Structures are given as C-alpha cells and as structure tokens.
Amino acid sequence: MQAPLFQMHAHFSHSNFLSLNPRRTPAVSSPPAVPQFLLSGRSSFNSALTFGSIQSNSVKMTSVNSSLSNGNSCGNQAIALGLDSVDLDRFADVGNQLADAAGDVIRRYFRKSFDILDKEDLSPVTIADQAAEESMVKIIEENFPSHAIFGEENGWKCKEDFADFVWVLDPIDGTKSFITGKPLFGTLIALLHKGKPILGIIDQPVLRERWIGISGKRTTLNGQEIYTRNCSQLSKAYLYTTSPHLFSGDAEVAFARVRSKVKVPLYGCDCYAYALLASGHVDLVVESGLKPYDFLSLIPVIEGAGGVITDWKGHQLFWEASSKAEATSFNVVAAGDKGVHQEALDSLQWQ
Predict the structure, then answer these.
(1) Which pLDDT score is estimated for 79?
(2) Which of 180, 170, 348 is nearest to 271 (CA)?
(3) Calpha distance 218→84 (Å, rounded)
(4) Quick one: 342 exposed, middle or buried, by C-beta within 10 A (0-12, 13-18, 19+)?
(5) Whose CA is closest to 275, among 183, 143, 206, 186?
(6) Cα angle at 185 between 287 and 303, to 5 degrees?
(7) How far apart, in Å, are the Cα atoms of 301 and each of 101, 105, 121, 260?
(8) How far apart are CA 155 and CA 160, in angstroms?
(9) Helix-strand-coil percent breakdown of the chain, rounded to 5?
C-alpha cells in the first residue's frame, strides 16, 4: 500500500511559511502577523503538515489581511457589499469555529460502526452528519442570532422568511466516502450576504486541511496562499468528477464530449476535487445535479485562488435562500484556467 502523502505531527510554530505550489507563489520575507482570534486556542489545527518532502510548521487560518495580489476584479467586492475587514474577520473566525466543531464530531465516527439511514432521495445519512450540523448551528445561533441557516440535514432555520446573512452548511459532503472509510469527503460552510457567497470553507477533518475563501481575498490552505495552475488547452487538462454514473440523459452525453477531449479523466473526491483544483493540482471539475449546499462554499475558494466556477452555460451560480426555497439541482463546471473553462463550455454545448 502506498504511504499517505500527508503526515500529521503534534507540534505547532509560526515558522516555515511555505507554499504547496511554489511555481506561482511570490517570495515571502517573513510570516504575516497572526490575527488575535487565531491565538484563542479554539482552532484544532495544532499540527505540522508534511507534503512529500516539504514540511510546513505554520498551520494558520486566514484573515482578510491577505488580499488578492493578481489584480482580480473581485478585490473591491466586500466594499461594494458594505462590509469591512472587521466584519469579514469576525465571519472567518466563526467559520473556523464551525469547522473545528464539525471536525471534532466527524473524527469520532470516522471508520467506526454506526447506523446508516437512507433519505427520501436514497442518499445516505449518518449520526455524524446530523450531529456535525447541530454543532455548527449552535455556534451560529450563539454568535449571530439574526442570521439564517440552511443546512443539508435540517433546511431553513430562522424566525424570518428572509435574511441578509445566511449560513449554508453541508456537514459531510461525500457521505459515501465517509461511510466507506475514504478521507476525501469534506465539511462545506458558506456565508451568503444578500445571496452572494462572501465566505467559503472546505474542511477535511481527517487530513486536517482547511481551504478558506473570502470575497476579494486570496484563498488559503491552512494559512498559506494558494493558486490555481495554468493549463494551455483542454487536451492537456486533468479532469475530475465524482462519478460518471451521476450523469444521465443529455447531461451524460455532454459530459462524455468533455471527457473525450481531456488528457486524463479521474473519478472520486466529491468536494475535495475542487480543493485540489484551487491548490493547482488539477485543471477541471465537471459535475451535474449539485445542490446549493454542495457548491456555494466552493465559489469564494476557487475564485480567490484565481479559478472560474459557473453553471454549464457559463452563468454565475446563484441561489436565493429563504424559508420557502427548494434546494434545486445545478450543473457545475470549475477550472483553474479561464481558457480551459471556455473550452469545456464549448464542448458541453449546454442549452
């Protein structure tokens, strides 16, 4: 059996602020200051991460002090939405607490015996899904009682029918991976402000990896800025989708057109594939039938790393959360390179 790429060590410091994608990372003379809320001891990331032969002892969450440096037009989005750095830092702080709480629950059940139930759509759900969502809901209600919550397991939670701020939660995206012992699932956390995702978190609690995207800021993985990679054309792209069996009808035909043109099609990973794309390890993700809680958190993560994520027509992904909103299905395509994204759209030919 191949040795795991990631090894966790029980120590923590603020040195060796390295990138996992050094080709596109600017030189850093010294580590940035750690926001005070990250020194409160509430983060579960008290470990060093080894990736191959590269070790980072600096496992820090992001704050809004790290802005996009590549001229991305989303740099002024937070200001346009009437939010300042204090607001966004506070949201990121609570988002980290949510991921910590969910991770504590999920690790207790991972590769253990528990009952598996089937929902109405025949997708599996476990006590870990339910308990992880409940742990996050409690923290949101304590910190932001006026905010609404839309969770995969329990739907809308708010006294009002609408709210300016809505937390969208998927405690375990990839439950089938979770119940079969494969650590490529993730906890997805999004915060919407007037319908727009301003905060997105992909958390892998077993590998202890956390991607954080904040509107207008550079995406980070465990505190390190990350970048998607360039890919000159679709024929050179590495493609991920969760499973080819999840496509049907016209969507199956459209996906086959893309798959036939890429260099390597790969399967599995659920939300982890989008995290790999944001980190510059793969080029394209194409999926069908995603619910809002499956993709809203991905938007700030991918865009903040320099990538593109839309529906199959190239339109911006948007879902208006409310007490009466249904979790409708969306077709999603994400790419690290805008040219590859356009080629994928041209191949999908989605009407």
Answers:
(1) 58
(2) 170
(3) 16
(4) middle
(5) 186
(6) 55
(7) 20, 24, 28, 28
(8) 14
(9) 30, 25, 45
What pLDDT does residue 304 have?
98
Q: Which two tokens stand for residue 104?
A: 């504590």
- Residue 115 has a pLDDT of 84
DSSP string, 193-233: ETTEEEEEEEEETTTTEEEEEETTB--EETTEE------S-
Structure tokens at 194: 């007037």
Q: How far is CA 97 from CA 27, 43, 311, in A?
A: 30, 7, 30
pLDDT value at position 78?
Answer: 56
The pLDDT value given to residue 123: 72
What is the torsion angle, in degrees rounded to the nearest 10, for the CA atoms of residue 342, residue 190, residue 294 and residue 235? Answer: 20
Q: Give the residues of the chain that fall short of pLDDT 50.
A: 1-67, 69-75
**167 and 191 Cβ atoms separated by less than 8 Å:** yes
CB 157 within 8 A of CB 151: yes
Q: Which two tokens stand for residue 39?
A: 């020194």
* Burial tier of 41 (Cβ tally within 10 Å: 0-12, 13-18, 19+): exposed
pLDDT in tens, 105-148: 999 999 998 888 877 665 778 899 999 999 999 999 999 999 99
Rounded Cα gap, residues 347 and 223, in angstroms: 36
In terms of Cβ atoms closer than 10 Å to its own Cβ (0-12, 13-18, 19+), residue 303 is: buried
| Positions of E strands within the chain | 6-9, 48-51, 54-56, 116-118, 124-126, 148-151, 155-157, 165-173, 186-193, 196-204, 209-214, 220-221, 224-225, 238-241, 264-267, 284-290, 308-311, 330-335
> What is the C-alpha to C-alpha distance for residues 214 and 83, in angstroms, rounded to an integer?
12
